[in-house]
Amino acid sequence: MAAYIIDARQAAQFGDYDTLKDMLDKGFISPDCTDSDDCSLLHWAAINNRLKIAKLLIDYNCNVNAIGGVLCSTPLHWAARHGHTKMVALLMKYDANPYLRNVEGFAAIHVAAQFGCTPVVAYLISKGVSPDEKDASSMTPAMWAAYKVHSLDLLKMLVTLKADVNIADVSYGNTCLHWAVIQENTSAVELLVSLDIDINKDNKQRETPLIIAKRKGIFVRWLLKIIDNTKHFLYLPFGVTVGLKILMIFSWIFYIHGIVPWYINMSFYLLLLFITYIYVNLTFTDPGIYSVSIQETYNMISKTFEEENFSDKFCTTCLLIRPHRSKHCKFCDKCILRFDHHCPWIGNCVGANNHFHFLIYLLSLIIELLIIIYGCVTNFLHMKKIYITISDTIINNTWILYVFILSNFILIWICIMTYLQLYQIANKLTTNERINAYKYSYIGQKGSQERVKFLLSKNGCKNLKLFCKGEAI
């Protein structure tokens, strides 16, 4: 009998379906037989992610919640620890109990959290396990994520699923932030501080996260910040854009306003107001953020991991199945409908809701820059009457020369951007799709040859018209 069990264990470990089925059919082994460590065949199938073997054993009515191993764990514990989400889904489908504890007092969700298995934790929560499920010492998955996992994915996912990061454990009275500081987990500290978590909350030793950080001589600067400093660099292009607009206004008022016809001045100021309005609109309005309710999120997570084929449209950050042509923006940290690109100059994404406005903004800038260039030339001609020679005119009008050169440089750049936008719209493409065409099967799976045929669409004018009417390209 012992020899049969060893053979059966090897079959379960290595996925030898036929051998194991033959042994079960002939009665050589029981589906619940265990080895010397009390580990069942389902344990070995679970830890090695042998889905067919697990289904075979379940069909033979094995105990899905068998306890075994040194830690007295279930097959669900073993699958969760190794991040086998499909196996976890299979076991849960056949009534595996996610609340059973091992000898350390951990349920499957705690084991998965300790080893950074984000999809497993997400799936268990989608099936009804609380994101704040406590282990024997009242540690939650979020606490384990802050303490043991230096990747942000798990902690961000738990925050998305409304985990309470202010809960304290029973043993030490530590919150997630306490544990992150103790373990020197910089990523977790920065994320938690950005959530406006209380950094002055005491634990049982009357120590706040800030006191612990000072005692350890680390991370004080992180704890004193609300947002990671690196994010401030994202605002640099936005600031440059606003600064350039102010520079152009200043130059026009003090150097050009008095020497150009009234209708040119009127055109400049009216267009300036329009550009300011549309710029504010682009910066502060929703570009097409796709979001769903918590229940819909749970349903999408369950559907994703229970299907035979993992959906490549599933966003592991937002925990949702993205609609067609949408994409997750790493800067905005959101999924954007019909994502075109993230524009640092407006500090926002360009997507389904503001793509048309973005094109109008570019066209308006071209006209405004042409007016400014006209004003600079007019200024030079006016000053030439005073200084006679070109060299004297330039020397005494250096500022306008700088404005003229800068305006031409920006004009060329924006014209290129506008051309690319019009070209893409005419061919029913977004910037993201043009750059990453090889990733999207609906553009051409085999690469550039099929993609060229698609890009050389003869319906360009029709597509531009549809775009201007507000219909999806």
TrEMBL record:
**One matching Pfam family, short form?**
DHHC
Enzymatic reactions: L-cysteinyl-[protein] + hexadecanoyl-CoA = S-hexadecanoyl-L-cysteinyl-[protein] + CoA
Q: Residue ranges of the Palmitoyltransferase DHHC domain?
A: 309-436
Entry GO CC = membrane
Q: Which residues cross the membrane?
A: 233-255, 262-280, 358-378, 399-420
E.C. numbers:
2.3.1.225
Bilayer topology term? Multi-pass membrane protein
Q: Does the record's keyword annotation contain Kinase?
A: no
Concerning InterPro entries, the annotation shows: Ankyrin_rpt, Ankyrin_rpt-contain_sf, Palmitoyltrfase_DHHC
What's this protein's name? Palmitoyltransferase
